[in-house]
Amino acid sequence: MTPGKRFLTSDEIRPLAERSDMMGAWLVVHCWGVVALAVAAFAFWPNPLTFLLAVMIIGSRQLGLAILMHEAAHSALFRSRRANEIVGEWVCGRPILAELHAYRHYHLTHHRFTQTERDPDLVLSSKFPTSRASLKRKFTRDLTGQTGVRQLAAQIMMSLRLAGDHEAVEAANSDFAQAFKARDLWQSFPVFIGIIVLMGLLGEWWYGLAFWLLPYLTWFQFVLRVRNIAEHGATEVSENPLQNVRTTLANPIERLFVAPYWVNYHLEHHMVMHVPCWRLPEMHAALKRKGLGGQMRIARGYGAALVEAGWKTA
């Protein structure tokens, strides 16, 4: 049973689950528009600060594309399945070398078995709480591009290894480390490289390297990790939907740089996974009206979530 039905009636859930083509299209346009504005800001005011801000903002929008692909995987971005499949795959997923169908395969398993032994994401959350030193090492690897380069190399090697091997492709679907990433890179790389080339054609030749590849290898990897930690790190290993996942109350700065498109409302998403992301604040309010606020695992900011994961531990 959907966890949310333990706390909300079908009549309460139904309007929350209503999808909107207009809102879905706006979110996609907004995401790419922010990328364009970040590059334009540097082009008009080129200096180290606008460069750094552009890299951080674009990295967060690359996470935004992953979030919108996630929405499409739940058929929550648009009303029609076809729109979800096409836009989720080619406009949101492929530009960040992700693959909608592979992502959906493992992610629905995560929803079904959240924080149990059969959860494919348990390999991530089981590492927390950890020490501050461990978190600093992870964040350093992310921000210096070590994580991104290593994962991209692994993705390329897996793609070459699995080329033409359908049985191996199916087996790889159960491998969390690569499950959400595109294995048929011959389809994804042209999209990824095409964005880099287009940026270079519209601006300076190096814009694509600086404003797509660099954010992908650095800030995107960092915010992916922070998001993963906040969602399930150091939460209860149980089937209690109020405690085995965390919602993080994000301020405007955190929403800009770390948590776009209401991804911070993760407990609410697990309650009813097909509720569109932009309606999750409404679900949060509905659960609180039921008197559940004190029982829900909520962090007041990403700093607080990292503290729970071990940031203050020596």
UniProtKB/TrEMBL annotation:
Give the matching Pfam families: FA_desaturase
Which InterPro entries does this chain map to? FA_desaturase_dom (IPR005804), Fatty_acid_desaturase (IPR012171)
Q: Which UniProt keywords apply?
A: Membrane, Transmembrane, Transmembrane helix
Which residues are listed as membrane-spanning? 24-45, 51-73, 185-203
Q: Where is the Fatty acid desaturase domain?
A: 48-290
Name the record gives this protein = Fatty acid desaturase
